[in-house]
Design goal:
Distance between the termini: 40 Å
Number of strands: 19
CATH topology of the largest domain: Rossmann fold
Largest sheet: 8 strands, mixed
Shape: globular
Strand order of the largest sheet: 12-13-16-17-11-18-10-19
Strand content: 15-25%
Length: 495
Amino acid sequence: MRIAIGQISHETNTMFGPPTPVTEFERQNWSVGQEIIEKNTGVRGYLGGMIAAGTDNNIEIVPTFAARAHPSGTIERAAFDTMLANLQDAIEAASPSGNPVDAVCLSLHGAGTAEGINDIEGTILAAVREQIGPDMPLIATLDLHCHTTDLMLESATALLTVHEYPHVDSYERGYEAVELAAKTIRGEVSPVMAKAVLPMATSPITSFHGPAREINELCWSWEERGLLDITFIHGYPHTDVPVISTSVIAVADGDQELAQEAANDVAARVWAMREQFRSSLPDATEAVAQALAFEGAPVVIAEVSDNPGGGSPGDSTHLLRALLDAAPEGAAFGFVYDPETAAQAHEAGPGATIDVRIGGKTDPEMMGAPIEASAYVKCCTDGRYITQSSMGQGSQQDLGKMARLVVNGVDVIVGSESQQTIDDELFRLHGIDVSRLKIIALKSQNHFRAYFEPLAATVIRADSPGWTTSNVQNFNYQNINRPIWPLDEGVEWQP
């Protein structure tokens, strides 16, 4: 049995940032053929799970093409066309005469937007479906913050979305995709899908506890009743396209009515609980005050409104300014996207004292002005480390030139790539033991929880002005379908 795997993945924030060119994908994550195996074997991600499932089930995994970039602005049309052509060419090459592949498994995101295409995943799946024919299994894994469109469901044999946020189960989803493809090839199952789409723009909320956990448990109870899969999909509110929504996708073994019944039941529970999904978070100053008043340590403060994992630049100064104003002992900020200051620190070298302008360079009106200060250069690094969080464990990180600065008694790490912090390897790289800190400040929405929540005395999520605020009512949406909760009053929904 031969199963082709591939990837085109991007979470697109259409409301901020310039268009994303193909060079960003090429620079960050661009693999062809065997490179996919080399880069993803042993990594806890979608492709890593697919590769492992092939090894464990004696299935030949045929790597095709993989491209992924950090969340950013709308994908340039030429970039998307290039990636789709590369994927289709590689799938074609994977099926030489006399030795065709038996199925295709793709790692997609679900919230990708290119110039002129609001639903790149549906476009990808439709193109591949036309290429491979109507009968070959085509299974895709998706991020929890995805859109759910008719074209996606019509084109795929099955869509498997992560259940958890943080996405600690992406490896398992990839593994299940290959196993489901194999069972479909052997005729052991016949996947059918149903969806229920809610008029909701859900703020990012963890599934580790709270209302999302309750919904997940309902999904799992349906799986125990025989469903192949059912997932509560939060959707992606940090973009402005008509297809954004909260939804449920159910996958059953040949029973369309069961799939629809399950999808409707879970969606109805989500709709009934919708008020529990509203976010009310402290601003940066309030968050620092709460952290200092808390008796235990360490306290993690996550600046959710400037989450590079959602397409925000990562150089907001709201939380950093509040932290420097308070000047607590035992505080570290990891990290602020600021290649200019990182380069300045490298040029001066460890032991130097330099005048800096930290952050606030991308969008000072929204994200806060640069912080002008005198900084002691404690150390400089190359920004390279291996992820230890259960989310993406084993993956190589390369954040370019980085530096640990000491400003007003606070350790401030600056870096040259915009990326959220999901474990403490970044701090270790710069000689900081987070277990000794009173305050650990970072930029992330919820992914940090997978690693930091078990070691934190408490977690505080700070929501200042920013492009990934949890208060979706602050966005000036122009293109989404209305009415939609919570932006509009009196929104109604029935299964």
